[in-house]
Amino acid sequence: MSEARSLLTRMRRPLAAVALGGMLAVSLQGCFAVFAGGALATTFAATDRRTLGAQTEDKSIVVKGENRIPGVVAAGSHVNVTAFNRRVLLSGEVPDEASKAAAEREVKGIENVDTVYNELEIAPSSSFSSRSSDALTTSKVLASLVDDKTLYSSAFKVTTERGIVYMMGRVTQREGQLGAKIASGVSGVQKVVTLYEYISEEELKDYQRKPASENKSTS
Fold first, then answer.
1. Phi, psi of 119 (to 5 degrees)
2. Most CB within 10 Å of its CB: which of 58, 141, 154, 168?
3. 134-184 pLDDT, tens per residue?
4. For 105-138, how does the pLDDT look when each residue is reduced to its tens digit (9 = 90+)?
5. Which of 96, 48, 102 shows the shortest CA–CA distance to 76?
6. What is the rounded distance in angstroms from the CA atom of residue 151 to the CA atom of residue 91?
7. Could you give the residue ranges of the DSSP H alpha helices within the chain?
8. What phi-psi label fits residue 85: left (phi over 0), alpha (psi between -120 and 50 degrees) or beta?
9. Interior CA angle at 79 toward 127 and 178, to 5°?
10. Sheet containing 39-42: order of strands
11. Which of 208, 202, 159, 152 is nearest to 175 (CA)?
């Protein structure tokens, strides 16, 4: 664990992209990653741009969503819940429109949820091999983001479903566009969908000037 955290503190240095990305995805899974039904959604907590309060709420939203959704969707559904700064992404597959709507309705009723992006597909549940491939794609995208010296990879949260990469995070327009461009060039990526919360360049500079303890207040 300490070795993994040490790597994170140097996240802006160039890395051997794919190999180290896979290592990070595996070694950090028990600390900061959520692996739900094959969708690997990872964010580095060390320099997270969310407040500690938002991070805690996001974890609670995911747990509640994963517990409640199976009770309102049809059998054979595969639904992943990803939360970033109180914004929730639903991805995966459900057998009918009723299940898709029910999953969204259930998550909207969870406390502290601001927005729900319903990206559920009406399709058979994905296979284990497909989910494993998606997890590998996510690790490669994250490694490529880490390898770029101009980006803070911790500002992004990445989830992959059926080769479609979903990118969340608190980023500037410049960071968001560059992140999407990098992701689109990774092998195995079929499409990139951006669900960013944008901040201005001035907000970014202000964030960088503040002490870490102030940026991570519980408000």
1. -105, 20
2. 141
3. 999 999 999 999 999 999 999 999 999 999 999 999 999 999 999 999 999
4. 999 999 999 999 999 999 999 999 999 999 999 9
5. 96
6. 26
7. 2-9, 17-27, 52-68, 97-108, 128-147, 173-184, 201-209, 212-215
8. left
9. 90
10. 33-36, 39-42, 156-161, 164-171, 191-198
11. 152
Give me the DSSP letters along 24-76. HHHHTTTTTEEEETTEEEE--STT-SS-HHHHHHHHHHHHHHHHHGGGTS-TT
How many domains, the chain? 1
How crowded is the C-beta side of 119, counted as CA atoms within 13 Å?
Answer: 22
- Per-residue confidence at 208, pLDDT binned at 50, 70, 90? confident
- Do 147 and 17 meet the contact criterion of CB atoms below 8 Å apart? yes
**Residues 144, 158: Cα–Cα separation, whole Å:** 12
Classify the phi-psi angles of 130: left when phi > 0, otherwise alpha if psi is within -120 to 50, otherwise beta.
alpha
- Domain containing 79 equals 1-219
